[in-house]
Amino acid sequence: MEPVAGRAYGIADKVEAFVRETIIPFERDPRATSHGPSDELVMEMRARAREAGVLTPHILADGSHLTQRETAIVLQRSGLSPLGPLACNTMAPDEGNMFLLGKVATDEQKARFLGPLVSGEARSAFFMTEPAEENGAGSDPSMMMTTCVRDGNDWVINGRKKFITGADGAKVGIVMARSEDGACMFLTDLPDPAIRTVRVIDTIDNSMPGGHAVVDIVDLRVPASQMLGQSGEGFTYAQVRLSPARLSHCMRWHGVATRAQEIATDYANRRMAFGKALIDHEGVGFMLAENLIDLKQAELMIDWCASVLDTGSAGTIESSMAKASVSDALFRVADRCVQVMGGTGVTGDTIVEQAFREIRAFRIYDGPTEVHKWSLSKKIKRDWKAANA
């Protein structure tokens, strides 16, 4: 692989300095609630990022996007604090939604919906997942229950969505629904009285503003001009978004895991037990050594997958490999950090316990590890059949 351009390291260094010096002190801010940081806190941090020149750093002033390999370097640094991606505007779902709109939206749609996201003035939500108890779309999007019907110059959408990250407080929505042609995507302004938050769910993670909501969509009317792409092509567009989005999650949580390792390492070198520092006990030192190995292997997997995406490949198989392996590796890192720190590791005195919770959730969203392994096993079978035809 060719070396990554130097511009990425310059941007990443600025992002890291900003996160460490300006954003980490916000980690104890009471506006970081159990359902995610408040919009007041998000906008305050983004104002700081704008002043520092690190807001939406992966999208350049001319509108061009860093390569995936360059983006990986920048997003890993923004993830050194759970609040860093929010402050720098590199957080899900906005980062993935910006990528999708940049690829699929019309110029008019970009001006209206993408512009406020890139500037950090608005948040967005991606309405795809549906309640499992109603047998709706989850890891299998073909089970989509939400419908859209053409009515003159409008589409009328009805359905229920669940685990919709950031819906509460978002200004831009991307809604997936099923027409006679197949899956469709629509852009809509939020809030809208036809999109009703039933409840915000209590979940293990709390890094994303607005939390994760159950939402009813009742007779939502969307002009045909706000359909994203073509009717029936929604699953294709979903893959445009999801393959790099899975990798972006890997990038951000790699940063959080790196920070947890820093904290655990500091603790192990300062804490004394049985006449010596914890780091000098093999049981502890070996856990930190294993963390270094997992972090480096995860970094290499991210870089490899990013390089594949940069060739123009859809990268579906590669992103499944990265998502499954990196999420599990980073969870091992976070788990060992908690273990190294003992009682302190399960308190809110540091971000280590939050890293553990957030990365545990990461193993499920954007496809559980088992779904990605199932996808990979199907490829193995296809390849075997092709080789033995």
From TrEMBL:
What Gene Ontology terms for biological process does this UniProt record contain?
Answer: fatty acid beta-oxidation using acyl-CoA dehydrogenase
Q: Does the keyword Manganese apply?
A: no
Q: Which UniProt keywords apply?
A: FAD, Flavoprotein, Oxidoreductase
Could you state one GO cellular component term attached to this entry?
A: cytoplasm
What are the protein's GO molecular function terms? acyl-CoA dehydrogenase activity; flavin adenine dinucleotide binding
Record domain Acyl-CoA oxidase/dehydrogenase middle: where: 126-197
The Acyl-CoA dehydrogenase/oxidase C-terminal domain is annotated at 232-377
Q: Where are the transmembrane segments?
A: none
Q: Which cofactor does it need?
A: FAD
Domain Acyl-CoA dehydrogenase/oxidase N-terminal span(s) in chain numbering: 11-121
Q: How does it assemble?
A: Homodimer.
Homology family: Belongs to the acyl-CoA dehydrogenase family.
Q: What is this protein called?
A: Acyl-CoA dehydrogenase
Q: Which organism is it from?
A: Novosphingobium malaysiense
